[in-house]
Amino acid sequence: MNKKIIKITLLMILIVVGITEFRIMIVNSIKTNGSFLNKLTDNTELVWNGPRDKKVIALTFDDGPHPRITPKILDLLKKYDVKATFFVLGKHVQFYPEPLKRIKEEGHEIGNHTFSHIDVKNTSEKKIQEEFEKTQDEVFSVIGEKPTVFRPPFGYYNKAVKKVAKKYGVKIILWSTSQDTKDWSNPGVEKIVRTVLNNICNGDIILLHDYVEGRSQTYEALKVILPELKERGYKFVTISQLIDMNNNENIKLEMVED
Question: Sorted alphabetically, which Pfam families does this protein's record hold (predicted)?
Answer without folding.
Answer: Polysacc_deac_1
